[in-house]
Each structure stands twice: as structure tokens, then as C-alpha cells.
Amino acid sequence: MTDTPDLDALRSEVRAFLAAEAPTGWRDASRTQDDFVRTQRGWFAKLVQAGYAVPHWPATFPGGGRSLAEQKVIYEELAGADCPRLLLSFVSTYHAFATLHECASVEQQQRYLPRILEGETWCQGFSEPGAGSDLAAIKTRAERKGEVYVVNGQKVWSTMAQFADKCLLLVRTSADGPKQAGITYLLMDMKTPGVSVRPIHQIQGDEEFAEIFLDNVEIPVSERVGEEGKGWAVAQATLASERGLTLMELSYRMRGALSRVAALIRENGRQDDRGCLRDFGELVTQVDAVCAVADQFLDNRINGIERIGDASIVKNSYSRALRAYARLGLRLGGMAEQYIAPITFGDLNTGNWMADFMNSYAWTIAGGSEEVQRNIIAERMLDMPREPKAWVA
Ligand SMILES: Cc1cc2nc3c(=O)[nH]c(=O)nc-3n(C[C@H](O)[C@H](O)[C@H](O)COP(=O)(O)OP(=O)(O)OC[C@H]3O[C@@H](n4cnc5c(N)ncnc54)[C@H](O)[C@@H]3O)c2cc1C
């Protein structure tokens, strides 16, 4: 895609905004979790005000209704600038938005979507200790009593749940019939009595996700998305966003971050090292391919084309390229890069190659593991034979 004069003007406008407003010092190794949250909230508010936080939302919202080409320009500029990724609000602006926009009632949309732009943050309560890849095996139980569901159970790996106001919650309302048929989708206020959140302390020092314990939590029936027992279909909207749209921005960020690898090659005097240049060339090609796949995915969605497996292709291409990016950076950085930055919250391009390298492995699992995405592509897209039942836990 080449820029038209309008796109050129938008690019200059975004660039000028970023030059004036992008936060500084956010990679500082001495920052605390409070610093992280403050920076994230402040930066999100500025992006909303400038109209660059939710270009993929409908035009009825400030900054929404952007064409694919305009979204691309905005993401490219954000990715290329030295500004933090919105780790605290991506579940809200992508996953919660997609779910509410595609599946919720008009009343729920009107209640929650504007609040996201005011800074209300969401987390995703899908995975459980016994249900990850096999998500339909969830056991968190919701029993209807009059106008409320009484919920008991446990969720795990909920990104940023300790800072969230609301939760996209999958619960089991029936144990009869196929596993998927007994699942219901609820919107839960994290301050409801009976909800407790325990952050998970990770090996690199930060607490990116948390466990959520639910003890007789009462959630009004009006907070249900779709019908009782039809939550599995609603969850697909959340998951498609997780594996598709979110990754478009991330792919551009990775392309922007290639300049860090190029800088390392120059700093190490390896401009004439053919092996190093070959590895870099392969990486650039791989990252460009990821961006092309992500563009195609978004283009298809805008045109109403939804193919099972497309989001899985974006997800797997991204996570493979991310590993290659981080591995090359770590190899070039040498011993000096063995130090792990304390607070990175699963970001890439943290300024610390070891942290990027470790975070790149989280992406083999986040949003559905690579193996399971391959199964989806093979079985549901390419119509290959299903995996033998005995292999499935
Ligand atoms: C960074 C990160 C953020 C996350 N954020 C959230 C969040 O916000 N909310 C949330 O609900 N969850 C979140 N998760 C959890 C994530 O969705 C699950 O970890 C994921 O679905 C895998 O489930 P599991 O951990 O139970 O592993 P398992 O399902 O037990 O898988 C273990 C291994 O077995 C393999 N495997 C399993 N089944 C098959 C099969 N049929 N064929 C071949 N191989 C198979 C998997 O590929 C994997 O390698 C997050 C995870 C990560 C890493």
C-alpha cells in the first residue's frame, strides 16, 4: 500500500503527536509496578484524547471508524515511535470490544464501550487449572437463583487481572450434553463480594497475570452476553480478536523493533558478516510476511470474510517470528544482555534482549498454544484427518 496525500497527512499528524506526547523513561529499570500502571493509564488517556486509541472501533466513538489503510498508518507510527504498548488496556480495547460489539445487547454496548474509553479496564477469565487448550472443559459453576447467577470456581493466567475493573467470564451453567453446550458468558465486576485476585509472581520478577477465586459471587442475569448455554459461540468472538486483531499492532511493533537489531549489528561491527546478514535478512522477510498475513486478516474481516483458521495463522506466524527476533537480538547482544529487566509485563522491545527472549516463549502459549492452532489449521481449514481421540487429554 502506498500512502495517498490524505494518508500522508495523517502520518505527519500522528508523528507530530508522538514527538510531543510519547512518554519517556518507561524502559527505566528502576521503575516500580505503580510507575508502570501510572504510565499506562496516562498514555492511554492521551491516545484517546488524540483519537488514536481505538481506530478499529466504529465511527460513533472518538477516533473510531478508520479505514484499514488509516489503521495501518496509525499502528505503524505507534510501532515505530519509542512509546509503550498498551498492556493494561489491550484486553479492553480489543477482546472486550470485539465481544461487546459483536455479541452483546445494545444496552450492554452503550453501558460499557464508552467506559473503556474513560479508562475502565477489563481482564479475561477463561483459563482454569484444568482447562486451557481444552477450554470447553471449564468447571467454574454458575447456578441461577432468581435474577442472579451464583458463581463458584477458579480462573488462572488472567492478564493484568489485579488492575482490572471488569472481567469477561466463562462459566458452566449445565453439565449435561456436549461440554460446549453448558457454557455461559458473563460480564463480572471485579469488586463484587466473593471475588479475590492473587497475582502470580513470575521468574523474571514481575506479575503479569493473576489467579481469580470466585466464592459465591452473585452476578446479575442482565450481565449475561447472549443466551444461557450459548457462551461458547460468544467466546469465539473474544478468541478471534485475541488471535487476530491484537496481533496486527504487535506485528507492526516487531517490524519497528527491527531497527534495534540493525543497530546491534552496526554496534558490533558485523555489517560485513555474511552469516549475520543472512540471519537478519531472513528475520526481516519473516516479519514482513507476518505483517502481510495480519493485514490480509483485517482486510478480510472488514469485508465480512471470516475463515476458520485465519486467526490461527496470524497467531502462529507472529509467535514464530517473535522468537526469531528475540533470539537474534540475544545472540548479537552477547553476555551484556544476560541481565533480566525486572518489570517488563510480557512486552517486546523492552530494551532488554533477555527479557524479550523469555517473553517470546510466552507467546507460544498465549492466545492458544501453537500446537493447538496447528490442529485448527489442519483439521478445520485444510480438512485433514482429526487427531486420534487417544491423544486428547
Ligand atoms: C502470556 C499469557 C497470557 C495469558 N493470558 C490469559 C488471560 O488473560 N486469560 C485467560 O483466560 N488465559 C490466559 N492465558 C492462558 C492461556 O490461554 C493458556 O495457557 C493456554 O490456552 C494453554 O492452556 P494450558 O496452560 O492449560 O496448557 P495445556 O492446555 O495443558 O497445554 C500444555 C501443552 O500441551 C499441548 N497440547 C494440549 N492439547 C493438545 C492437543 N490436542 N494436541 C497437541 N498438543 C496439545 C499444548 O500445545 C501445550 O504445549 C495466558 C497465557 C499466557 C502464556
From TrEMBL:
In terms of InterPro entries, this protein maps to: Acyl-CoA_Oxase/DH_mid-dom, Acyl-CoA_Oxase/DH_mid-dom_sf, AcylCo_DH-like_C, AcylCo_DH/oxidase_C, AcylCoA_DH/ox_N, AcylCoA_DH/ox_N_sf, AcylCoA_DH/oxidase_NM_dom_sf, Mycobact_Acyl-CoA_DH
- Start and end residues of each Acyl-CoA dehydrogenase/oxidase C-terminal domain: 229-382
**Names of required cofactors:** FAD
Q: Does the keyword Cytoplasm apply?
A: no
Q: Does the keyword Oxidoreductase apply?
A: yes
Per the UniProt record, one Pfam family is Acyl-CoA_dh_1
Residues in Acyl-CoA dehydrogenase/oxidase N-terminal domain copies: 4-120
Keywords linked to the UniProt accession: FAD, Flavoprotein, Oxidoreductase
Query: Superkingdom of this entry's organism?
Result: Bacteria
GO terms (molecular function) for this protein are: flavin adenine dinucleotide binding; oxidoreductase activity, acting on the CH-CH group of donors
- GO terms for CC? plasma membrane
The Acyl-CoA oxidase/dehydrogenase middle domain sits at 123-217
Similarity comment text for this entry: Belongs to the acyl-CoA dehydrogenase family.
The protein in question is named Acyl-CoA dehydrogenase
Annotated source species: Novosphingobium guangzhouense
